[in-house]
């Protein structure tokens, strides 16, 4: 072909083409990123499902397809007589070792995009001994896609994975009932499995699951609607993945910037660099450096060497501060009016990932955001693999999940994991081998004398109580500038809740705090009146509303609605 | 449940400045890559960036600049020069390093060259192992580096789909089973004695993401990525560019001029060209969108051996 004259630079030839590509790029810029993890037990069809999704969504390039065809002929260990000529799991099962065994042994990441979203998929191993890898793949996911083999239904491993997914706080759960072709696309079988999954979900405190009947191998309801499930009126798996709203809650929280390093190129520039874990920051904002407690203002926000007016989580930034204060790696710059919890002792849920069991007699290195401290770990309870309820345990072994009490040599600056996956997570490192031995999620409360016993020695689980009462316990504080005003408001809220068929009680007196916590543990909505700056509703330790209505009744109605929704679906 | 606050907690109102839309995928990827750069630099003593001159390396350098701006890169760049790279790559490398004020170090396995190492004489496997894999390990050892940034992406081929963002190499390379589990961004960068880590800040980027970013950020890349008339011969269906006089032509073979471009760059005798008229970024992007063959099709090494990358990984290469 003869060389035509084309604009010599990197950009632009014909105006039309240029415009077309630019508008395409704009569309791309608007696309968001959704991470999902495929979990379930071995052979449920995770790898096959992902291969099918990539294939049908045209995410696979032509020659990858022919390379897989070659490998299928060369040495697939799987049974013949399949519906489809391609072994779709070979798209994700890449490593030689597992190709030989026919199982997935490490998390494989895959990428594809549709017109609406870019997807990052983590395909996790289903074997018991690789549960730790599953936790790895799931820790950053927006959506969990749980697979169940329609023939076998929910098995112990499914429950274990669902439990970890719930602990990891994955915001959305999709349940694929797979291999529907092997149960003749039977609606009854599907409903039965979905019911069981729903009951597990509610026991685990997962709000909602989105079920889909699929055949990963044949492609039914993966990308294309199946003609073989006329009774299914919901969408396909891809429909769900494209439409599930996934909010980045961390952007709305109070500001936290764990310090990674300080940039000092000379010339008086000092940039406090890190990735915003929660919230938004702008020039002029006041920040507090923790643990020192020194306050200052932000002089400027730089992203990639350029000044921007403001930046939100999860951007990587460098902040310039008005005053010369000392902030180093491991410290946190935070919003002064809603700082993180500062505590050296905390409760957490732990997934143990090492072959060597947890040793309560030694210390581990704990890495939380950018801070590393030494910590001792005591087991409060383990987990019954069948019921997922807390069970007595002294230690945790590989893949065990349990509640622990962590005592650090120096305080951590954290939020409970339920509020922030970024500032509520940590890992434990074996200081001798440098191996990561556990992943931890910080629990809602910091340990206080007395409370640990009541919560850990009780033989009645929170889920059982919830089932009995049809609501979950909530601890609320109703604050007003004067105590009498707070009491009036508290009793009005109690009445409103009663009218909404909730079990609520106002708790007062010298030990109101402890008594309220006990009531909430018992499953009640406990309302403790107190004195504060303005009319404020505090739920489980965090401000839920500081926005009073025109009068007591209106405020009570609004706050009762908040508490009712916090205590779960109506009975 | 939390204990009640001792005094009133001032409200944290939802911030009206917050952009309600989700971050675009490129900015999300950028933030993640910058985080990786900073974390490794903060936790390790002697990092180095492996610089391959390709488009991914150009993007890697830009991301590193963003991570440490306005400070210069806090580590040197290391290029393993086999002496068989395209001449245009070497020209670009030297100009790029100068323009960006980069501390570029070049290492070549001169002993092997003296023994006659060449992709033609030794075959691609042995040549690659000696001139790239061994040379890299030697250079890392000689420099005393404890961390090396690389531009590998997980979407490049199947065996890379499982590569961790941070991965540990002992003296004997690694097996897939002893990789350290890590959670999210919390994979620890601490390494033990005798170990070094490899960090891949582009792990979650796809080829298309890289091209989009090059476009948005106007990142300079080697001209070989753009179509131009070039002298080529065709062997086993692969178009090879005759870049210098060392290329041994078979009897009766003579280079002809075709308009081609390269989707990946490496040693010229091992890198296939693609017939294409895409001479500008918008044209390349359009070809990408319509792409039907993936990037590494052009690399002869992969055709040589199934799962070649996994074998190289065990040897401590990328
Ligand atoms: N009949 C049928 N077989 C399936 C289906 N999905 C997966 N399989 C088969 O189940 C086996 C296990 O699948 P694989 O994807 O490796 O499962 P993983 O261990 O969860 O990744 C393979 O032989 C698949 O071909 C399906 O929808 N129908
Ligand atoms: Mg699998």
| Major sheet attributes of chain A | 8 strands, antiparallel
Bound molecules: guanosine-5'-diphosphate, magnesium ion
Residue stretches of chain B low in confidence (pLDDT < 50, at least 5 long) are 1-14, 172-192, 292-318
Largest interface: A-B, 131 and 99 residues
The number of strands of chain A is 28
The proportion of residues in beta strands of chain A is 25-35%
Share of residues in helices of chain B: 25-40%
Number of helices, where a helix is a run of at least 4 consecutive DSSP H or I residues of chain B: 10
Give a structural overview.
The complex is a heterodimer of chains A (571) and B (318). Chain A is of the alpha+beta class and 571 residues long. In chain A, 26% of the residues lie in helices and 30% in strands. Chain A is built from 13 helices and 28 strands. In chain A, the strands form 5 sheets. In chain A, strands 7, 8, 9, 11, 12, 13, 15 and 16 form an 8-stranded antiparallel sheet that branches. In chain A, strand 4, helix 6 (156-167) and strand 5 form a beta-alpha-beta unit. In chain A, helix 11 crosses helix 13 (552-566). The longest helix of chain A is centred in the middle third of the chain and has 17 residues, at 187-203. Chain A is globular, with a radius of gyration of 27 Å. By secondary structure, chain B is an alpha/beta fold. Helix content of chain B is 34%, strand content 14%. Chain B is built from 10 helices and 10 strands. In chain B, the strands form 2 sheets. Chain B has a 6-stranded mixed sheet. A 4-stranded antiparallel beta barrel of chain B has the order 7-8-10-9. In chain B, a hairpin with a 2-residue loop joins strand 7 and strand 8. In chain B, helix 1 crosses helix 2 (55-68) and helix 7 (207-217) packs antiparallel against helix 8 (281-289). Chains A and B meet through helix 1, helix 3, strand 2, helix 5 and strand 8 of A and helix 1, helix 2, helix 7 and helix 8 of B. Bound molecules: guanosine-5'-diphosphate and magnesium ion. Guanosine-5'-diphosphate is lined by residues 40, 42-48, 78, 82, 89, 103-104, 126, 178-179, 181-182, 215-217 of chain A.
């Amino acid at each position: 072909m003869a060389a035509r004259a084309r604009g010599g630079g990197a950009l632009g030839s014909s105006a039309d083409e240029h415009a077309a590509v630019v508008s395409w790029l704009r569309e791309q810029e608007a696309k968001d990123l959704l991470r999902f993890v495929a979990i379930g037990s071995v052979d449920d069809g995770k790898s096959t499902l992902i291969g099918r999704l990539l294939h049908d969504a045209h995410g696979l390039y032509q020659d990858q397809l022919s390379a897989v065809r070659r490998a299928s002929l060369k040495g697939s260990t799987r049974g013949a007589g399949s519906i489809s000529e391609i072994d779709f799991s070979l798209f994700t099962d890449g490593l030689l070792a597992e190709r030989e065994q026919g199982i997935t042994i490490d998390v494989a990441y895959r990428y594809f995009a549709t017109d609406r979203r870019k997807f990052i998929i983590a395909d996790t191993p289903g074997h018991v001994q690789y549960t730790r890898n599953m936790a790895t793949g799931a820790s950053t996911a927006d959506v969990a896609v749980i697979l169940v083999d329609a023939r076998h239904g929910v098995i112990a491993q499914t429950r274990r994975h669902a439990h970890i997914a719930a602990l990891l706080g994955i915001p959305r759960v999709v349940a694929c009932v797979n291999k529907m072709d092997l149960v003749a696309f039977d609606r009854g079988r599907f409903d039965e499995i979905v019911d069981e999954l729903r009951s597990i979900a509610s026991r685990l405190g997962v709000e909602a699951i989105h079920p889909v009947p699929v055949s990963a191998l044949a492609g039914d309801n993966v990308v294309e609607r199946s003609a073989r499930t006329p009774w299914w009126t919901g969408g396909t798996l891809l429909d769900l993945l494209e439409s599930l709203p996934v909010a980045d809650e961390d952007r709305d929280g109070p500001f936290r910037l764990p310090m990674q390093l300080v940039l000092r190129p000379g010339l008086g520039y000092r940039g406090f660099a890190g990735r915003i874990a929660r919230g938004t920051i702008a020039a002029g904002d006041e920040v507090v450096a923790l643990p020192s407690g020194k306050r200052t203002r932000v002089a400027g926000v730089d992203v990639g060497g350029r000044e921007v007016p403001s930046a939100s989580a999860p951007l990587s930034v460098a902040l310039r501060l008005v005053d010369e204060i000392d902030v180093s790696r491991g410290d946190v710059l935070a919003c002064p009016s809603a700082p993180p919890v500062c505590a050296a002792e905390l409760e957490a849920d732990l997934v143990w990932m090492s072959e060597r069991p947890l040793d309560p007699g030694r210390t581990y290195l704990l890495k939380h955001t950018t801070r590393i401290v030494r910590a001792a770990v005591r087991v409060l309870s383990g987990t019954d693999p069948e019921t997922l309820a807390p069970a007595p345990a002294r230690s945790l072994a590989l893949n065990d999940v349990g509640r622990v009490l962590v005592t650090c040599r120096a305080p951590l600056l954290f939020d409970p994991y339920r509020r922030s996956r970024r500032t509520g997570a940590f890992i434990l490192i074996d200081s001798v081998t440098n191996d990561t031995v556990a992943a931890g999620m910080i629990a809602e409360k910091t340990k206080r004398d007395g409370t640990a016993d009541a919560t850990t020695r009780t033989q009645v689980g929170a889920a059982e109580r919830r089932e009995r009462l049809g609501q979950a316990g909530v601890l609320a504080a109703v604050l007003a500038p004067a105590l009498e005003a707070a009491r009036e408001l508290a009793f009005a809220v109690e009445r409103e809740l009663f009218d909404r068929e909730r079990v609520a009680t106002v708790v007062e007196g010298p030990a109101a705090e402890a008594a309220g916590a006990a009531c909430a543990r018992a499953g009640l909505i406990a309302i403790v009146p107190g004195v504060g700056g303005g009319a404020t509703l505090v739920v489980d330790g965090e401000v839920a509303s500081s926005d009073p209505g025109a009068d007591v009744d209106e405020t009570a109605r609004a706050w009762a609605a908040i508490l009712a929704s916090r205590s779960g679906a109506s009975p | 449940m939390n204990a009640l606050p001792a005094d009133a907690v001032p409200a944290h109102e939802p911030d009206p400045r917050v952009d309600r839309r989700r971050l675009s995928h490129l900015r999300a990827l950028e933030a993640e890559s910058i985080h990786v750069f900073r974390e490794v630099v903060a936790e390790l003593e002697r990092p180095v960036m492996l610089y391959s001159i390709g488009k991914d390396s150009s993007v890697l350098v830009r991301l590193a600049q963003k991570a440490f701006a306005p400070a210069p890169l806090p580590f040197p760049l290391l290029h393993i020069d086999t002496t068989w790279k395209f001449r245009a790559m070497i020209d670009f490398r030297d100009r790029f390093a100068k323009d960006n004020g980069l501390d570029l170090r070049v290492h070549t396995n001169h002993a092997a060259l003296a023994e006659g190492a060449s992709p033609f004489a030794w075959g691609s496997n042995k040549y690659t192992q000696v001139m790239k894999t061994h040379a890299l390990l030697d250079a890392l050892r000689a420099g005393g580096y404890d961390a090396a940034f690389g531009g590998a992406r997980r979407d490049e081929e199947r065996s890379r789909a499982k590569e961790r963002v941070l991965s540990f190499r002992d003296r004997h390379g690694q097996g897939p089973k002893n990789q350290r589990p890590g959670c999210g961004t919390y994979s620890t960068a601490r390494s033990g004695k005798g170990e070094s880590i490899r960090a891949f800040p582009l792990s979650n980027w796809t080829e298309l993401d890289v091209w989009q970013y090059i476009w948005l950020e106007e990142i300079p890349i080697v001209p070989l990525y753009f179509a131009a008339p070039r002298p080529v011969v065709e062997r086993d269906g692969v178009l090879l560019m005759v870049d210098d006089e060392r290329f041994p032509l078979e009897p009766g073979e003579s280079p002809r001029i075709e308009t081609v471009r390269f989707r990946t760059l490496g040693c010229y005798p091992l890198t296939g060209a693609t017939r294409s008229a895409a001479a500008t970024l918008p044209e390349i992007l359009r070809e990408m969108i319509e792409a039907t063959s993936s990037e590494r099709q052009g690399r002869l090494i992969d055709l040589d051996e199934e799962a070649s990358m996994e074998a190289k990984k065990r040897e401590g290469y990328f």
